[in-house]
Amino acid sequence: MSPFAKAVDVLQGEASVQMGWLVPTITLLKTKLQHIRLSSKFCVPLVDALQAGLERRFGQMLADPELIAAAILVPKFRTCWTSDENILKLGLDFIKSHLKEQSVVHPSDTSCSSEEEDFFSVIKQRDAQENSKQLESYLACPADTMDVLKSFPAVCNLSLKLNTPLPASAACERLFSTAGLIFRPKRARLDSKNFENQLLLRLNKRFW
Question: Residue 204 to residues 52, 182, 185, 193: CA-CA distances in angstroms?
Answer without folding.
Answer: 31, 14, 24, 17
